[in-house]
Amino acid sequence: MVRWQTLSSLLGVVLFAGIGPMQAQDTGSAIHIDVPTKLEKAHVVVDMGHLVLNADMPFPWGDTKLLADNLHEWNVSGQIVMVFRGDAAHLVLDDETYGANRHVQTGNPYKKLMLDLMAKGVQIELCGATARANHWSNANLLPGIKVDTNAMVRITELEQEGYTLIYQ
Q: What CATH number corresponds to the domain at position 112?
């Protein structure tokens, strides 16, 4: 429990410290950062096992984009890996496969978001067990998506290598 609270606090500090001075809507005063943060190295794995939406936007996308931007701006070494599994896995499908699985004609509306994250250096992986259960092959995925053997094993491996787990 303490570990999750620590990780949540770390994420909050990293995300909000990178925002810098902000104007409060109701008072017009600038926010004062009491706990400035500076990272030299960051290895983060984001467990995308459940799709959480803010309207139609995947909530973790904004968090991960902000984290990737902060790490780039601060010249931090390291890696962000997002592991998709379960009901969030369809976000990494190509247009045709997304349409067939989601019963829509519009293609994958999250394709640009996924490609933008990869362009920022975020490694996106799909759980191989989820892919097999859904009869998906590598050809059904967006370009650049990597497939791991099993999400739970992969996340465990990354944590053992020192990655910080963010569960979305």
A: 3.40.1260.10
